[in-house]
Write a structure and sequence with these properties.
With about 130 residues, the chain is an alpha+beta fold. The chain is elongated and about 65 Å long. A hairpin with an 8-residue loop joins strand 5 (about 95-100) and strand 6 (about 110-120). It has one domain: Alpha-Beta Plaits, CATH 3.30.70. Helix 2 (about 40-50) packs antiparallel against helix 3. It has helices at about 20-25, 40-50, 80-90, and strands at about 1-5, 30-35, 55-60, 70-75, 95-100, 110-120, 120-125. The strands form two sheets. A five-stranded antiparallel beta sheet has the order 1-3-4-2-7, with helices on one face.
Length: about 130
């Protein structure tokens, strides 16, 4: 698990365990889970951190193709949601990968390359009624 902080977070917090968002008076009232491809995770996490958000990364695996993904967990105030979604859409690109599938009706199993769109991002936003950190 990796945590990205914004560049201005290089100082010691006067109260250990209190997040930058809490110190700065930003209420955390939304929780965002963002599933991104491994290729996009570093740039996406840094771009979100540059917005002043704390980002926690959890490794995950895609169900359909079994590809490695990363789930980014982000707590944020409501007024930062549009900025966060914009940054994610700028950093996460959809790609085309090819998988081998058998040619139907052939007497022998002849594999053909089938294009499959992968990547982009899946974003889930949940309203937070209560946030505490200690």
């Amino acid at each position: 698990m990796t945590t990205f902080h914004s560049p201005e977070d290089n100082h010691q917090h006067p109260y250990p365990g209190v997040s930058h968002a809490q110190e700065g008076g930003l209420p955390i009232n939304l929780f965002m889970a963002v599933v991104v491809q491994l290729q996009d995770e570093r740039n996406t996490a840094r771009a979100l951190a540059n917005l002043g958000l704390i980002v926690i990364q959890l490794p995950s695996t895609g169900a359909f193709l079994g590809r490695r993904n990363v789930t980014l967990l982000v707590g944020l105030p409501e007024d930062r949601l549009d900025d966060a979604v914009r940054v994610i859409s700028e950093q996460c690109r959809q790609r085309v990968e090819y998988i081998s599938t058998p040619l139907e009706g052939a007497p022998l199993p002849i594999p053909i390359a089938t294009p499959i769109p992968v990547g982009g991002a899946t974003i889930i936003v949940i309203k937070v009624d209560r946030f505490e950190e200690f």
